[in-house]
Design goal:
This protein is α/β, with parallel strands linked by helices and about 325 residues long. Helices cover about 30% and strands about 15% of the residues. The protein has 2 domains: about 120 residues, NAD(P)-binding Rossmann-like Domain (Rossmann fold, 3-Layer(aba) Sandwich), CATH 3.40.50; about 180 residues, NAD(P)-binding Rossmann-like Domain (Rossmann fold).
């Protein structure tokens, strides 16, 4: 059984001590490594398993591929079943790797926007002792909507519990109980909750169902003190409507680690919104990711070799 691992700057090669864990679990596994900037069909043609972002254009030429595991929590470019030569291919992702760093990013962004750190930093750069006119907000005891209750959304909820937040969670199937959130609703009920929300945190994948879920009408329903944070996919928010809402102070602010378009081009009006924090899709960055990512893969590998149910499997028809 051959495994090929495709490495790049975002998914670097595992350290030797971590690779020893993989070798201990599957000593008979033939493991090859290839760089993403040089990978070709010939590097993957004999591989039963590929761990990495295999170029989608190659997948039709890989009849031996039975399992593709992605280093990311998202799978957007790989959910079209027609991409694959093998119609029964298993596609899994690394959900569970990034919940800790992303939830810390969310909490940090909530506090930064609530306490006007961006405004004070600007004053610092100008050498101005300016208290400003904007009143600080408190995260403690606030009403928070968490859109998406997967690993990332759940880790966000864990941290918000320490601030005694009142959390309303949203997921595709609200009948599935959540261990931390008692109030779970479907996305169809989102508008009912927006007028009372202090923070809206988007942890959703980019699908046809979630595209522009937050548009002009939804932004109009929010309080002018509301803060919107998106660490899911940029396509969930109507960017033009968001720019308008920020510039007209319809909402207090936005924290965006993802945008639409992405990368956000120079000169885009979103850059100049004074009440926004924009980061270049880095909320998941953490030195702990490598160990968590490999642990998830090894657990899946055990299941794959034993013919057991694979968790983190992507439903190609649903897109996530």
């Amino acid at each position: 059984m051959k495994l090929t691992i495709i490495n790049d700057a975002v998914f670097p090669r595992f350290p030797d001590e971590q690779l020893e864990m993989l070798n201990k679990e599957a000593p008979d596994l033939i493991v090859d490594f290839v760089r993403a900037d040089t990978v070709g069909v010939a590097d993957l043609i004999d591989s039963e398993i590929v761990f990495g972002w295999a170029p989608p254009r190659f997948l039709k030429d890989l009849p031996n591929l039975k399992w593709l595991h992605l280093p990311s929590a998202g799978a957007n470019a790989f959910t079209d079943a027609s991409l694959y030569a093998n119609p029964s291919v298993i596609l899994t992702k690394s959900s569970g790797t990034f919940g800790i760093p992303i939830s810390e990013y969310v909490l940090g962004t909530m506090i930064a926007l609530s306490r006007n750190f961006t405004g004070y930093y600007k004053s610092q750069q100008e050498g101005s002792w300016n208290r400003g006119e904007k009143e600080a907000l408190e995260v403690f005891g606030s009403n928070v909507l968490v859109l998406g209750l997967g690993n990332i959304g759940s880790e966000v909820c864990t941290r918000l519990m320490g601030f005694s937040c009142r959390i309303t969670g949203f997921r595709r199937d609200p009948s599935v109980p959540h261990e931390l959130v008692s109030d779970v609703r479907s996305l169809s009920k989102l508008r009912d909750c927006l007028p009372n929300a202090d923070y809206i945190i988007i942890c959703l994948p980019g699908t046809a169902e979630t595209g522009k879920l937050i548009g002009r009408e939804e932004l109009d329903l929010m309080k002018n003190s509301a803060i919107l944070i998106n660490i899911g996919r940029g396509s969930v928010i109507d960017t033009d409507a968001l720019v308008e809402a920020l510039n007209n102070k319809k909402i207090a602010g936005a924290g965006l680690d993802v945008t639409d378009p992405e990368p956000l081009p120079a000169g885009h009006p979103l850059w100049s919104a004074s009440n926004a924090i924009i980061t270049p899709h880095v909320s998941a960055s953490s030195p702990g990711n490598s160990q968590r990512r490999l642990s998830i893969f090894i657990d899946l590998l055990k299941r794959y070799r034993s013919g057991l149910h694979m968790f983190n499997e992507v439903d190609l028809s649903a897109g996530y």
